[in-house]
């Protein structure tokens, strides 16, 4: 994430990874304020077998694009809610990548962070039958929850 203040949102991605047994590493590194450290960390993560990145950033939100430009690993962008534009600025900055450097971009905020992790889970489940079963079970539980829900009676 671009800043430690993004953790309240990005912890949703971390929790989803943890729930599925996917190892993860969460760091606050800025594309603008710590570019050399970001570049070194990306290279280190690749050397350690990382298979995807989830980058959350707000405002100018260049983090996901910078990460994607330095690796061929899938990089999912999560726009952070922002004070003045409610995350629309983050969304537009993340989604508008130039041709040739893709950044699949999720929803603004917590849902986007959780869905980014679920996208990584789905990607990894293509070659991991146990993970595929976990994902199918997760989806089934979501369906059951919706089907069991009821609306309150009118008075």
From TrEMBL:
Pfam families: AIRC. It comes from the Bacteria. It is an enzyme of class 5 (isomerase). Residues 1-146 form the PurE domain. Pathway: Purine metabolism; IMP biosynthesis via de novo pathway; 5-amino-1-(5-phospho-D-ribosyl)imidazole-4-carboxylate from 5-amino-1-(5-phospho-D-ribosyl)imidazole (N5-CAIR route): step 2/2. Keywords: Isomerase, Lyase, Purine biosynthesis. Substrate binds at residues 3, 6, 33. Its EC number is 5.4.99.18. GO terms for biological process: 'de novo' IMP biosynthetic process. The keyword Metal-binding does not apply. It catalyses: 5-carboxyamino-1-(5-phospho-D-ribosyl)imidazole + H(+) = 5-amino-1-(5-phospho-D-ribosyl)imidazole-4-carboxylate. GO terms for molecular function: 5-(carboxyamino)imidazole ribonucleotide mutase activity; lyase activity. Belongs to the AIR carboxylase family. Class I subfamily. Catalyzes the conversion of N5-carboxyaminoimidazole ribonucleotide (N5-CAIR) to 4-carboxy-5-aminoimidazole ribonucleotide (CAIR). PANTHER family: PHOSPHORIBOSYLAMINOIMIDAZOLE CARBOXYLASE (PTHR23046:SF2), PHOSPHORIBOSYLAMINOIMIDAZOLE CARBOXYLASE CATALYTIC SUBUNIT (PTHR23046). This is N5-carboxyaminoimidazole ribonucleotide mutase. It comes from Oxalobacter vibrioformis.
